[in-house]
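A note on notation is needed here, since sequence and fold are reported together in a single record. The reader may check this reading against the record printed directly beneath this paragraph.
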Amino acid sequence: MELAFSTLGVPGMPLDEVLALATGSGYEGVELRAAADEPVNPGLDAAERAGVAERFAASGVTPLTIAAYAGMAQDGPDEPVVEEALAAVRLAAGIGAGHVRVFPRGGDLPPSEADANAARRLAAVAPVAADLGVRVLLETHDSHSTAAAVSRVLDRVDHPGVGAIWDLMHTWRAGEDPQDSYRALAPHLAYVQVKDIASRTDTTPLPLGTGVLPLAACVDSLRGGGYRGWLCWEYEALWYPGAQALPPLLPAGARLLRGLGA
């Protein structure tokens, strides 16, 4: 399996430093948080996007994903949600990234209504994304924290332009066993986000292997199912200012994942 890390762990870091960090720490790819305060964001013009693509190509690092924040299941009109997702798709295509991450964000809506919202909006985005060579990925998160819930939505969409990101923390906190999560997501799975935390209630990010998340069971499930895709370390430093800095932790994290068979 190839390894990536999310720039959520190094908020605001200039792109050239991110690329050097990846090549120097044993990672083949980077998941790019694409908020307005990040160096790669939807406000870049065409020339700037081409420049980002060139810098990735020169470094040998893969721009794995544009990590966007569109809430596909949220209440309200479809158009703003669809346009937000499409803006991220166009950014991904412009820099050569193959994926866009989106969230459910169904809130307190009844599951049937949240599912319908997400499926309808993903179906609207999917053909455009596919034409641009991008796949839109619904993450196991918030209202759809289980693999079963995300798979339920993606089964309804049934389009190659959409897929899933398995965030191990959210499925584990929701009570799913890693084998069950993998089986539910396997038909849709694009890649897996790994991390480690102190407990079910304390989600402060920790170095991989020092917390409670079942990393070995996750990798075993993937390998046993024939998965040979990406593992991305999402270290949520931006949301936890007291967490250890990510850069010194990256080499040991890569060694641990490869030691598990990644």
Notes: Strands lie at 2-6, 29-33, 62-71, 99-103, 135-139, 162-167, 189-194, 230-233. The chain has a mean pLDDT of 97. The CA atoms of residues 68 and 88 lie 6 Å apart. The two ends are 5 Å apart (CA to CA).
